[in-house]
Structure prediction request, 283 residues.
Amino acid sequence: MYFCSEFLTMRNLLPTIVVSLALSFLVQCKSGLVTMSNSCYNMISTGQSQNKSGNYSGALETFNTVLQKCDAYDSKEKGFAGKAEALNGLKQFNDALAAANEGLKISNSSIDNLFQRATAEIGLGMESAAKSDLNTIISLTQKNKNTAERATIYAKIAALNAKEQAYDEALGNINQAMSLDNSNLDFSVLQGDIYVASGKFKEGLESYDNAISRGRNDAEVWKAKATALIKMNQKKYGTDNAGSLAKKMNSAEKQSLCATIRTAVEHGMKDMNIELMQVAVCN
Prediction:
């Protein structure tokens, strides 16, 4: 099987009719699927759906099958990206990094593989490498119309900024993400996390409430809100001791915290530290 670049090399050696066929094939190369079979296309679609739903083990099995059975270069590129995403989901970051690098050997401008490599690098604490890859992705995507994809990249960079305690940069990038895709409520939660990490508890709580009021009503966001309330009161009263905090908090503060913890538990939150705080403050 010849790749597109090989057709360009052979062009001058082929009869006219064969050149015509070769150029036709080259056009197909640029359109996307090239020689990927229907069965490979369907397997890749299945794997992508599994990753999206959080079934990372199933996705890993699917994409391993793709890489074993599908030979077209675009199948391999998407196969490695899907495998890397599944491994990142399983927090097997070294293996995810290796898979993404294999995909980038096929196409060094593969946004999917760059994205998964950056995700693995963040997981491994390779902040500089991750930031470089994410900036490369932004550069590659500036010219297209996929604003949701660009917004996700800005959010990734914001999370990385926050990890480095560069909170002003983090807020700038998450605000950019939200301006590009205001429908993604994960961005509101991340904005809240950044505010709380920087000590701006009131703004963080407003971001969480915004996400909740717009439909992000799950255990994760309620846990984040409860954690923010606890940290806010710990800072206000200068103690991390639950018993001491319970004695110092006023009734309105206790009511707000206890109602938030109860709602978080109702939504499935399990956190021993928050539950211990609930026992001390709410009983």
